[in-house]
Amino acid sequence: MVLDKPGKPFYESPSSFRIIVLIRKFSKILERIIAARLLTAARLNGLLHPNQYGSLPGHSTYDACLTLTNEVKTLQRPRLKVSSLFLDIKAGFDNVDNNTLARILREGGIPPYLVSWVASFLGERSFTLIFQGAPGTPAPVNFGAPQGSPISPLLFLLYVAPLHFRIPRGLMISYVEDFALTVASLSYHGNIRRLQELFERLEREASRLGVSFSVAKTELIHWRTPSQRHSPKCVSPIQIKGEMFHPSNSGRWLGHWFTPALDPAAHFSRRLALAQGAFALIRRLSPPGAGLPPYLCHRLATALIAPILLYGADLFTPSVGTTTHLDTFWRKVQRWTTNCFSATPTRILSVESCLPFVSLLMAHRQRLAALRVVCSPPSVNPATARLHLFFPLLSVYRAPDSSRAITRGRSSVYLPLHWKTPRPVPPMRNHLPVDGVAHRTIPFTTGLSRVPMINSHLVCPTPTLPPQSLMDNTYSALKKRVRETLRVEWASLFPTPVLPASSRPVSEALHGLRQVRRRENPPDESRKKLSGRPPDLEVPRRPHLLPSLWLGA
To answer: Do residues 104 and 39 make contact, with C-beta atoms less than 8 angstroms apart?
Structure first.
């Protein structure tokens, strides 16, 4: 099936379309079984590079961006200049060669039956294009991996794994077909020379595999610290394949918008615009006084608008001004959900719509993401492998290409905070990004000698690991603590209202209602008489029941 890529200026080029392969259900089940076996064999034989993200269990875009920002902040500690080059493989899945992939698997120690199955899967295939005016005749294809297949992403990762190499004072990470090269030196001009040399080396390795990089999607960012905000910016370009690329003021990678100063305002302004566009479409389904019931509007708000608005909130923390803009839009969503008036108080609006404030949701997402990172196997998740050596993990493995060692012996100003140390006010010193993630989990992991390990089936079993069921139950209990924290914070913002004693008409009416009810249901003789209670007492406080729709997610 041929689908057009959204956002293209014109659709006269074949690159403006994406081909999705429609496969039978039985074939997808078989491919998932083979993919699970191939992934286990590839990890045991070391065919996957530790810095490869995407299409692998236990990974997410947050882990890749956290690793990138952590290395950038770490390399900036000794006052080095840091630069990153973002690359994209052109038509990656379509350039997978069957013979080359079979050779990589065979030399890597993959069982012969898996190699034969992959060779048979990629060879002797035929396809039929489905679009308006298509002839509908099948055509043979013996090259590339079909997009839409459960095993194709894993085959592509195994195919491009030889492109990874270690960079001194730098880092190379990839998310499927998106690559990021980061280097550090004493000047930005030195970084440009190093990046050009690394790209030429990477291009030579890619030509051996028959893949190439898309020049149009190349971006260069020179990272800056807050102390460099008054210094002149480096505008020297980098030459890639005969074209000049100037440093970008903002770059998009894996859905996150990065600026040289890592300012979150650039990211959330774009997320807000996307959320406003989505909200403008779905609000037509429920105009004021008609349309969908509130519970369906709530499902649309939580399943569609919130993920668009809060994407990247686990990585970036917005400023007060940015949070105000997000809250203003979120209140419109709350009013649309409840069909309340515009003059409804915001505190009542949040409770009635079962939608917490944006600041509470962001903090909740950050805690859940931090808990997942510290509980992941460090040999599987590179972000976990960059935690401090004394963090209580069940594994002592740490990333060999981590730049944490260059921060040792620095002065107190450039020395990062220990992961156990709270951030001072004002923040004269900060944590490294992964240490800040570890610090968020301290209130929830108190009392544990070691944090549990999720996805332990992805690593080699060792007798020192606790039972998987015990670790899963512990991780579930930790997530329950995080949800309870959200409940407590939400309840603290909305204390139970108490009717003042001066409101005599209301209190007298409630007192009369109680007397009627007690006459209908007389109490025991041991209780006091009905007439003994004065009418001007304040109304007893009722328990404040917050909706648990968000807390169960």
So the answer is: no
Specify the pTM.
0.85
76-135: pLDDT as tens digits: 988 899 999 999 998 888 888 889 999 999 999 999 999 999 998 888 777 777 776 667
Non-local CB neighbours of 504 within 8 Å, separated by 6+ positions: 535, 536
Instruction: Give 95-149 as a 3 state SS string.
Output: HCCHHHHHHHHHHCCCCHHHHHHHHHHHCCEEECCCCCCCCCCCEEECCCCCCCC
Strand partners, 82: 184, 223
Could you tell me which of 123, 69, 130 has the C-alpha nearest to residue 101? 123
Are 179 and 92 contacting, i.e. CB atoms less than 8 angstroms apart? no
Work out the angle at residue 85's Cα, subtended by the Cα atoms of residues 437 and 265, and round it to the nearest 5 degrees: 50
**Rounded alpha-carbon distances, angstroms, from residue 438 to 42, 234, 306, 404:** 30, 34, 25, 15
Cβ atoms < 10 Å from Cβ of 549: 14
Residues 211, 4: Cα–Cα separation, whole Å: 23
**What's the CA gap between 69 and 58, in Å, rounded?**
19
375 CB contacts (<8 Å, ≥6 apart)?
451, 452, 453, 454, 475, 478
C-alpha–C-alpha distance, residues 51 and 93, integer Å: 19
